[in-house]
Amino acid sequence: MPSNVADHLYRDFEHAGWERASPFYAGSFEAITSLFARQLLDAVGAGPGTKLLDVACGSGYMAAMAAQFGAQVEAVDFSPSMVDAATTHYPALSFRVADAEALPFADNTFDAVVIGFGVHHFAFPLRALAESHRVLRAGGAWGSPCGRPSASI
Ligand SMILES: C[S@@+](CC[C@H](N)C(=O)[O-])C[C@H]1O[C@@H](n2cnc3c(N)ncnc32)[C@H](O)[C@@H]1O
């Protein structure tokens, strides 16, 4: 996958920005991004027993909603302070620090992968999409409000 210095600078810029924004995210942007969560989770069929991964989970509200629907949820974000905030809000859920471009999960692990308003923040979006595909089982569902939710890939 091609990369260059500008891409890495973009990643560092994003990372520093989200580290700073994390204490305020739940009280600001979440009010807007969360409006899409129900539709996105419905689009990927999140329900009882669904093994679902929330990539770039931010403050964790979508992971929490999926868990309310009965899904078995894992959620990752590359900002440690964002993961801390999500863990504080939803201590019963599993949040971990991980980059969308190098997911710490085995191939074919999940029934559904969602990325809520994350793709346009990734320095290497194609690498992140390939990673989502790798951890998704055959016939699984992928969805993002920044791209057309698909029934399967
Ligand atoms: C606009 S917020 C979206 C948060 C949440 N998904 C939502 O819908 O509100 C973007 C999130 O992407 C995360 N992020 C950006 N680049 C990332 C990467 N390469 N890997 C994992 N998370 C990343 C940021 O830390 C931030 O929490």
Automatic annotation (TrEMBL):
The keyword Oxidoreductase does not apply. InterPro entries: Methyltransf_11, SAM-dependent_MTases_sf. One of its GO terms (molecular function) is methyltransferase activity. SUPFAM superfamilies: S-adenosyl-L-methionine-dependent methyltransferases (SSF53335). One of its GO terms (biological process) is methylation. Keywords: Methyltransferase, Transferase. It comes from the Bacteria. It holds the Pfam family Methyltransf_11. Residues 53-141 form the Methyltransferase type domain. This is Methyltransferase domain-containing protein. It comes from Variovorax humicola.
